[in-house]
Amino acid sequence: MSANADGEVLYSVKDRTARITINRPERRNALTWTAIEALARHLAVAKEDPDVRVVVLSGAGERAFCSGVDLSEMSSGSSYASLHEARGKVAELFGLLWSLGKPVIAAVRGYAVAGGFGLALACDLVVCSEDSVFAAPEIDIGLWPFMITVPLVRSMPPKRALELMLTGRRVGADEAERMGFVNRVVPAAQLDDAVRDLATTLAAKSPVAMRLGRDSFYAVWDMAAAEALAVLHPLLTVAVGTDDAKEGTAAFREKRPPEWPDP
Length: 263
Fold this sequence. Notes:
By secondary structure, this protein is an alpha/beta fold. It has two domains: 2-203, 2-enoyl-CoA Hydratase, Chain A, domain 1 (Alpha-Beta Complex), CATH 3.90.226; 207-253. The chain has eleven helices and eleven strands. The chain has a seven-stranded mixed sheet with strand order 1-2-3-4-6-8-11, with helices on both faces. Strands 5-7-9-10 form a four-stranded mixed sheet. The protein is globular and about 60 Å long.
């Protein structure tokens, strides 16, 4: 196990799973620009580490996963232009998650609101506790959830996302699961175990197939069907020729667990 504390963001690796934790529980894990940069840095490390096959993103404490960007920082800075550039880091963070090449699980406990809502839905899978609350409340303070529009409309029917952005209303865990942007709801006491079990399942899969398949999923998301199939067809040929595919096929024939080569 390796671990590194970066103050506002914690990073550790155990059992092929990197755990990235937003560590500002006293502020409901609101993101400062420093925290956003630390998240990006840790994601880059996890991406390049061959011992990491799964990433879990969580918030410290029991009150919140993340409550978005810290508003006290949003209105301060050396210049208007620098603040504009800093806000773009949120979009870059979403891009890093989608291009990671490894599955990312959001472990949500408590509030996931505003940018924190978008951050959770930018992950591949969301497992949350029964006491979790999701919302895009920017409209209530005269703003709009511009940056999180993309992860929201990619995670639920667009008109559902628009309703949440128009009203700012809070959504509980059960409704979130019904709306489709949460994969699993568990009692709070079982959240860590549920996330660990899911991470273990994902870490046991072929890392090469996981990377190729996950990358292809995001690559074709917004494509028309014919265009998407033109991208997916050659990727199937690439996947069939990999050592992982050969090992997986052999293990299936021999009725044994596969032993994946190091990526």
